[in-house]
Write a structure and sequence with these properties.
The protein is an alpha+beta fold. The chain has one domain. Helix content is about 25%, strand content about 30%.
C-alpha cells in the first residue's frame, strides 16, 4: 500500500499560469514596487520638507544658542502673482510679548531648528499687513471647499520647502494621521511622512461662509483670519490633486530648477 501524491520532475512543467492569474501577479508586483518607491521618496523628503506642526512651539535661538523665545506662527505673503506664497517672517513669543522677526534674519533647518542669523535681528510688533497669511491662525483646521462649495477637508498640517533663497508654502496635509502627529508627542512631529498632500497651487483664495457670499477675488488673502473664513479650491472635489511622496519630490525638484533658471 502506498500514498498517492503529486510528483514533479525536471522538464515537466506544472499546469501553466492562466492569463488572469498572471495579470493578478503582475499587478501585485507593481503595487509592491510602487509602495517601495513611495517609501523611498518619503524618506528623501525628511530633510527637504518643513512641517508647520514641527516648528510650532519650537525654541528660537540666537547665534550663540541662547533661547530668545518660542515660535508661535509662520507668516507668508500670498498674492495673485504667485501660486506658492513665500515666508516673510515668524511670530515669536518671548515672555508675555509676541513679536515678528523677518525671514531675512532666519536660518531654518528640518525638522524644527530655528536660529537667528544675528543677535541684532530686528523684532517688530505683530501687525497684519496686506497679503499676509498667518499659517497656524488662518489656515490650520479651517474648512476647505471645492469650486462648487462642497466641503472637502480641514488642513491638519502644512508643508514648506526651501526654494533657492526663499521658503515657500507648497502643500496641505490632511487626514487623521497628520492630525494625530500634530497633536501627539513633540518628538513625533518632525517625522515627516507625507501621505495625503493637497498641492497648495490648487487653492485659489480665502472665502467667507457660503451663506454670506460677497466678493473675495480682489486679493487671495483679503479675509484671512476672519471668523468663519475658509479656503476655496479652484476645482471640484473629484479633481483635487493629492500628491504622493514621489510627486512632492518631483514638484520640489521642478521648483528648484525653475528658480535656478530665473537666477541665470
Amino acid at each position: 500500500m502506498g500514498f498517492n501524491r503529486v510528483t514533479w520532475t525536471p522538464g515537466h512543467d506544472r499546469k501553466p499560469i492562466g492569463a488572469s492569474r498572471f495579470r493578478q501577479l503582475a499587478r501585485l508586483r507593481r503595487q509592491r514596487e510602487g509602495r517601495a518607491r513611495e517609501a523611498t521618496a518619503g524618506r528623501a523628503l525628511q530633510g527637504s520638507l518643513l512641517s508647520l506642526a514641527a516648528v510650532l512651539g519650537s525654541e528660537v535661538k540666537d547665534p550663540d544658542g541662547r533661547i530668545v523665545g518660542r515660535l508661535s506662527d509662520v507668516v507668508v505673503r500670498w498674492t495673485t502673482r504667485s501660486a506658492y506664497p513665500h515666508v516673510t517672517g515668524i511670530v515669536v513669543k518671548t515672555g508675555k510679548l509676541k513679536v515678528v522677526i523677518g525671514a531675512r534674519w532666519l536660518e531654518v533647518a528640518s525638522p524644527s531648528a530655528v536660529r537667528l542669523r544675528s543677535s541684532r535681528a530686528y523684532a517688530g510688533p505683530v501687525e497684519r499687513h496686506r497679503d499676509d497669511v498667518a499659517l497656524a491662525h488662518d489656515v490650520l483646521d479651517r474648512q476647505v471647499v471645492d469650486a462648487s462649495g462642497v466641503q472637502v477637508v480641514r488642513p491638519a498640517d502644512l508643508y514648506l520647502a526651501a526654494v533657492g533663497d526663499r521658503i515657500e508654502l507648497v502643500g496641505i496635509e490632511v487626514g487623521i494621521g497628520a492630525l494625530a502627529r500634530r497633536l501627539g508627542p513633540r518628538r513625533l512631529r518632525g517625522r515627516v511622512h507625507p501621505a495625503r498632500v493637497i498641492d497648495w497651487g490648487s487653492v485659489s483664495a480665502f472665502a467667507p461662509p457660503r451663506a454670506e457670499g460677497g466678493g473675495h477675488r480682489d486679493r487671495r488673502s483679503e479675509i484671512a483670519g476672519e471668523a468663519g473664513a475658509g479656503l476655496e479650491l479652484n476645482r471640484s472635489a473629484s479633481e483635487v490633486r493629492r500628491l504622493r511622496p514621489s510627486e512632492v519630490r518631483a514638484a520640489l525638484d521642478e521648483a528648484l530648477a525653475r528658480h535656478t533658471g530665473e537666477q541665470l
